[in-house]
Amino acid sequence: MDPISQILIHFALDLVSVCVLTFAIYYPRHRRRDLIPGYLALNVALFALAAVLGRSGDQGGIALGFGLIGVLSIVGLRSDSMQSEEIAYYFTALVLGLISGLPNVSLMLAALLCTLPLVVVYIAGHPRLFARTLRALVTVDEAVTEPAAIETFVRERLGEPLSWKIQEVDYGRDLTVVDVRYRRPGNARHGGGRRLRAVVRPPRPRGPRESPGETIPS
Among 15, 59, 93, 179, who pairs with 39 as Cys (CB 3.0-4.6 Å)? Predict the structure, then answer.
């Protein structure tokens, strides 16, 4: 098989793998459309980089390329907009691109190696796995640091506190921000509890002199 045909076949495998990761596993669970282009671009870029460096025969270039990938990964992890579980998809997209782009790996072996991280991500991030264990960022309307008071607050409003960490204590505004891991009570179900009502009113028609930024007293 000539190199171009081999690259195209491996690229097809890479596209199938990253589309399964992005559109069949990630998006149905997290619904973050803004990260999809990043996952796809990262995957395809790493596939191209691995394919080029793997066929160059330059061992120093390969080492430099993988070092560059490590630096880019560290920079990506500094993004505050990504949650911990989303970073797992980030690395999976990275690994899929590398595996598919390696020239000395057969197509069957590459397909098997691409399937393994997809299966792990699907199972490890399944919504039914540890469904009662949740995380919340709680703002307490009081500047408090006593462990007993915080645990009581969490237990009364959320459930059994498993672990928590104070993120911010503001004595000026008299509030505390706590990062809480808790277990929902066994009888609690999704969609249960108190229902919130919302009243939707049609917008008031503006007069001929009223602009969107003006406020006319009633």
Answer: 93
